[in-house]
Amino acid sequence: MKDAQPRAIYLKDYQAPDYWIDTTDLTFDLFEDHALVTSVLGVRRNEDHGEDTPELTLVGIDLELVSVCVDDTELTPAQYIQGSESLTVPVASQAFSLTVVTRIRPQENTSLEGLYKSNGMFCTQCEAEGFRKITYYLDRPDVMSKFTTKVIADKGRYPVLLSNGNDIARGEFDGGRHWVTWEDPFKKPSYLFALVGGDLEVVEDTFTTMSGKEVALRIFTESHNIDKCDHAMVSLKKSMKWDEEVYGREYDLDIFMIVAVDHFNMGAMENKGLNIFNSSCVLASPDTATDASYQRVEAIVAHEYFHNWSGNRVTCRDWFQLSLKEGFTVFRDAEFSADMNSRGVKRIEDATVMKTAQFAEDAGPMAHPIRPQSFIEISNFYTLTVYEKGCEVVRMIQTIVGKDNFRKGSDLYFDRHDGEAATCEDFVKAMEDASGVDLSQFRNWYNQAGTPVITVTDHFNPSSRQYSLTIGQSCPATPGQDSKLPFHIPVAIALLDQKGQALPLNEVGETEQVLQVTAANETWTFDGLTEKPLPSILRNFSAPVRVNYDYRREDLVFLMKYDSDGYNRWDAGQRLATEVIQDLVKGLLKGEEAEIDSKLIEAFGVVLADEQLDKAVKTEMLRLPTEASLAEQAEEIHPLQICEARSRVRKAIAVAHKNQIQALYQTLEQKGDYSPEATEIAERTLRNTCLGYLSELEDDSQQQLAVDQYRSAGNMTDLRAAMSAVINSSYQSQETIDALLNDFLDRYKNDSVVMDSWFMMQSASPSLGTLEHVKSLLEHASFDSTSPNKLRALLGGFASGNMKQFHSGSGEGYEFLADWIITLDKQNPQTASRLMTPLTRWKKYEPVCREHMRKALERIKAVPDLSTDIYEVVTKSL
Ligand code: 0A1
Ligand code: ZN
Asked: Could you give the residue numbers annotated as active site?
């Protein structure tokens, strides 16, 4: 039995462990209905820590205890205490060996934490606290140990047996079983442990490191996917090279392995030397993966690889420090992606995630600082705040100390803490020591939740030719934090003259300046101006804050045309479109026929016609703010009106610029073989954006375009864009839609990753994805309710990606989701908990939705024996 009421744990209560585990020798005997785990631990008392404790308590969950030995003596049950989730043994010496044998049932483990089976393959997921489902242990990241792992299994079924480090011995037993022993020379916490056993094929390559060492690279998948590993391999080699060149970090083992598994709760996992990936984040071929998937594979391969230093060589002292490894590693992978692809577009994409989803998290009931002060269930804190805002915080440090100092700080951090479990404070201190820049006030970013707002006002005095900018900052209250201290915010600005030229801001003629905003309110003065300039504020999204400045709509149009900062140019368009759509929403609520402001339509025409504009940036500028973004910016969310208003604006743009869009679509005609190269991606994305607009037109020939593109598509990007255009259109016949869906199904029914997109396209379609249709898809032969990918595609696609259908009716969508959350909580609490997110925002919705959402949450809360995952989210939300 679990505790009646799950309890929070607090950062302030952190204490070093009473014991260390210097060595961990594991033997896994894998069978068809269970696994026997023998763990031999070299334990040593932590002498620095407090008074001698006469006993050692290890944690363990769902384990069948077989035997316990201290040194060479087996203990009787009377000599140890087995708690519901613990094992306590007596301690008589400073150092001893503890041998524990447990039986576990990987075949029955549906939580996908610990050791489990995915499509007949044994695999593990131990971050954050999964190792305790394998054996009794000090399952906390500050306990670092040298692991040796022997895996024994049937050779026919499981010819490949992997674990961390290097394989040092192998052999066979009578009766068809074989074994492999792996040794990891680096000390690591248990969360980085991994094991795989299966019938897998491998793609091999090598990489020669900067000191001339040859590393074997291996990617393992089920045989039918082996032809989809090339892109991941190329990405891995690029990542290894980039980390050497940009951070001076070399790989440290003789082998680096990646294994693709279908059943996985997250994207991927950085286990030392043996990364385990969700198949969807590693497999790619032109026929099965879109451009976006290609880029995602590249980014995630890089992310996990970069963790080898930022996470594994230097790990986290405790889980409150999660952003130490995640924020820094996301920053590293973002810079890598920017170097490999379009830097400008990457910045826009990342800012979009921040401004739609992370700002919403910061404004919701689960808001927490990048270093939380408490949690009930750590799995709930693998969030956009810890990852993406954590990345922005690291980026701000780079902006404040400068690029050269940032690299010096990173070198110092790795030097100082190699082989240690460190804290966020250690990272900031290294940056401070290397740069000499005082980051005292900057540390507030680690302690305070919520999105700061900067309010900018300006004044021009023609007689003194002085222009002043006043910046005030505030931050809304968040749970447990009513008032905040001012943040240190780097605000990059430029001043544009009437021709759109950025004015020099100092003697050396620099046209951009980073204002170090530290006070609640402060004024900067610029001299020698002949006219009132237009400020370009928060260039390149220099800080994760909201900006209040009273731009007139013509100013926004001006910035869209002239701002030399790609991000701000895009942002001006988004602001303008948001305002225009918000006007329509207001009109719809009053039952009035509001006009669409022609400035927006004209501005889009200018973007379309601009031949100098980089195609990738142009595409971003042609996208309207998403429904999620509009909801995030609304005071009160009226979902149906948001969908309606946005859709009207899209149509109006299509109608007004039909000829131009059509011409652009035609000039971008695809030729030759597919390549995931940036310029080609840009052309395809722009062309498919045009197709999306043209499909808004009630005109047979335009509707036929999408169908034709579907029939002639030479790659998955064009195929899916065409399919989405067809199923999202209100003018296509059901017959055509069904024909395409069936064709897609026929072609891809054996490809699980592609089938995820088949489910997602339907569940997220405003016209097709009705509740009834989603329910019918649950019965489909390709749906698998034990697969987090399928659940995310169908339930997540509906609840998070289909504002119109999820919020229509009188709460049936919410009840449906609640039913699933209750069912899944027993099976896979992590996935259940992630699916809750849309319901947690209930307080922001208009009264009818709000009330229905609240009821659905109450119903979940009333279920007995909720997991800690769901318990935490539901109690904090209500
Ligand atoms: N550390 C991984 C993410 C990850 C976290 C938790 C997991 O299971 C609960 C799985 C993966 C990363 O940042 O890539
Ligand atoms: Zn990570």
From this structure: 304
